[in-house]
Amino acid sequence: MKKPISLLIFLALLLSQTIVFAQKNSTNEAQKMKVFIDGLMGKMTLEEKLGQLNLPASGDIITGAGSNNNIAQKIKDGQVGGLFNIKTAQKIHDVQKIAMEQSRLKIPLLFGMDVIHGYQTEFPIPLGMSCCWDMNLVEKSARIAAQEASADGICWTFSPMVDIARDPRWGRISEGSGEDPYLGSQIARAMVKGYQGDDLKKNNTIMACVKHFALYGAAEAGRDYNTTDMSRIRMYNEYLPPYKAAFDAGAGSAMSSFNEVDGIPASANKWLMTDLLRKEWGFNGFVVTDYTAILEMVDHGLGNLKEVSALALKAGIDMDMVADGFLETLKQSLDEGKVTQKEIDQACRLVLEAKYKLGLFDDPYRYCDVNRAKTEVFTPKNRQVAREIAAQTFVLLKNDNQTLPIRGTGTIALIGPLADNRENMPGTWSVAADFAKSVSLRDGLKKAVGAQATVLYAKGANFVSDPQLDARISVFGKSTQWDKRTPAEMIAEAVAIAGKSDVIVAAVGESSEMSGECSSRSEINLPENQKDLVKALLATGKPVVMVLFTGRPLTISWEKANVPAILNVWFAGTEAGDAIADVLLGKVNPSGKLSATFPQNVGQIPLYYNHKNTGRPLADGKWFQKFRSNYLDVSNDPLFPFGFGLSYTTFDYKNLKLSAPSLTADSKIAVSVEVTNSGKYDGAEVVQLYLRDMVGSVTRPVKELKGFQKTFLKKGETRTIEFTLTEKDLRFYNGDLKLVSEPGDFKVFVGTSSDNTLEAGFTLK
Ligand code: BGC
């Protein structure tokens, strides 16, 4: 007995020594950084300090012979802190050289980019990514993105976007992780870890920028850049957790959002940027605005550029993206006593600290090794990982009569505007992708079936029937390949090839730019002309598989009722076509689960699983009930709920057990459930745990996700899945915005989706 105890004591001592050492080390590092930056700032003029706060767009930077343009001159004059959306190690090297050799103080520039879901190897759009419910994969995708971006000169990414979104009309729901604060927080953490690794100074890690702080996803009516307004208690419990999780994970920077919070635009909101972010949460990185957000406060009605720039600085903004407000006006505001030297110094210090943390003062060309890009970007290995990850994000929404997987023999009719369109595969915000190299579904399917099957192709329909709308949804080089034929001619061609086939794969949905920034929709259906195509294909009597491309939940009630199989593939990145073929042919069994509710119609929005009960809930959930909270014309049910997703196999849940009937502040409850793969295929299942706090000092949601585990089960295999609950899992922000748990009864739900669970209960003492 003696030995293990002494061993334990030894280990405990070692651990405490290691912690003390690590703490000392980080204090030393912080001290070293302070001394360095104090020294540098001691030499800086006011103008040079303001220059560090300036992030212009890189649009007109020309290097080499043309380096005399406006931005280059500003760099020489010390008026630029960083640039963004400029790429290649060579180009960035040349621009950095201007700062290092021709500016007075030789302060290196930051180079940022919207590396949102991969660099040149694109992974699924974030909404798709969030449906894999596998944090290792999320982290891995961010790691590869950082590896590739840093090999091409970039050291700072404007990601992760962690805005909770409950309104699928909002096009930017595609850029986030959906509606749930718990899942969103896990993903935020994994992304930051993936980008930043364990050492920001390494040349293959990049700094994360958490955006858009805050509440951008709550734009009224789902219209981009629109007003937001919500109670503090909702912010704290439902919208803020993912941002906090990202900061707690060490994210080095944040981006202010365009919208207002409590009537004050985020970029001028002192409560948000200073009281909450820095004082309450202890964030010590820097805050950059979103694109021209300072200038936009003129239109918000807060004053002229000089006034709003002063407001932004005073609120706690450190860097001005594109508005030129800090550079052009802060000197005058200082002279007039509207801002203080201390405020300018503080912002400048935080920007310089970011550069220090990235190791740019040691080696400004750290990310500019031109040889790295040749071997580290868009590599076969990275593409293979992207293909594997993509297949994990697809959500099987329907599969009657085991229509899927299809056989890779005979004749397959591949039809639809997304069947043979490479540029629409990667998805919105694929800034570094080379569209010509992405894999279309036609490429992928043909390769996968080889000589075993014939793949016949017809476009069948344009994305939309209105050419003006088509022009709006085919921007950024992502052509929709507008077909001049009439809808009837296109459908006739499609039906003719369908008639010669054994199975029809209909690749339909949104174009990549029908979601993303400034791509809000008031109707979120499958465009009518595509629906007509699907109807015509169904009328052939052949089995139809609908492969649905989308950047948002869609109202596809008719499709759900009529099409036998629907596989939602979001926008799956550069390897989309291969990954989709893997799943269609059954090489990979789909296991994705929705991270955002699909409503039945637009009128139900916002519709989310973790809503409140109201004082008049439906008795037994049955629609319609007079004087109860429901609609005359549609039930309260979602079309597909949060957490939903089928598999080619089936999973049975039984024996939900709790290790104890009650919980105390120091105890734990083990929640276990037996899950059996009862179908014909091996497959993965996301086991989900939800809680309901039955009585609270404030109203509590009917259900909240508190845990999940993705587990792989061979056919016939049974596994016991265990979760541990502690008092911490029961905490929420009460009416005083204090994080508390309250004694009383709780319900536990464990199951395959938010609406299909086993139930048990316990009491918090
Ligand atoms: C977007 C941000 C993005 C920035 C820089 C803005 O329009 O809202 O998400 O990071 O542009 O490209």
Descriptive notes:
The chain has 765 residues and is of the alpha/beta class. The protein has a six-stranded parallel beta sheet. Helix 1 (2-43) crosses helix 14 (341-357), helix 2 (46-52) packs antiparallel against helix 13 (325-335) and helix 11 (293-300) packs across helix 12. The chain is globular. The protein binds beta-D-glucopyranose.
Task: Please give a quick description of this structure.
This protein is α/β, with parallel strands linked by helices and 765 residues long. The chain folds into three domains: 112-373, TIM Barrel; 378-595, Glycoside hydrolase family 3 C-terminal domain (Rossmann fold, 3-Layer(aba) Sandwich); 651-764, Immunoglobulin-like (Sandwich), CATH 2.60.40.
- Using only C-alpha atoms, the radius of gyration works out to 27 Å
Bound molecules: beta-D-glucopyranose
Assess the beta-strand content as a share of residues: 15-25%
First-residue to last-residue Cα separation: 36 Å
Structural class: alpha/beta
Q: What's the CATH architecture of the largest domain?
A: Alpha-Beta Barrel
Set out the fold topology.
Elements: H1 2-43, H2 46-52, E1 54-55, H3 70-76, E2 82-84, H4 89-102, E3 110-113, H5 126-129, H6 135-151, E4 156-157, H7 181-196, E5 207-213, H8 232-239, H9 241-248, E6 253-256, E7 260-261, E8 264-265, H10 270-280, E9 286-288, H11 293-300, H12 305-315, E10 320-321, H13 325-335, H14 341-357, H15 370-376, H16 380-393, E11 395-399, E12 410-415, H17 441-449, E13 453-458, H18 467-472, H19 487-499, E14 503-509, H20 528-539, E15 544-549, H21 557-562, E16 565-568, H22 576-584, E17 651-658, E18 662-663, E19 668-677, E20 683-693, E21 704-713, E22 718-726, E23 732-733, E24 739-740, E25 744-753, E26 756-764
Parallel strand pairs: 1-10, 2-3, 3-4, 4-5, 5-6, 6-9, 12-13, 12-14, 14-15, 15-16, 18-26
Antiparallel strand pairs: 7-8, 11-16, 17-19, 19-22, 20-21, 20-25, 23-24, 25-26
Bound molecules: beta-D-glucopyranose (BGC).
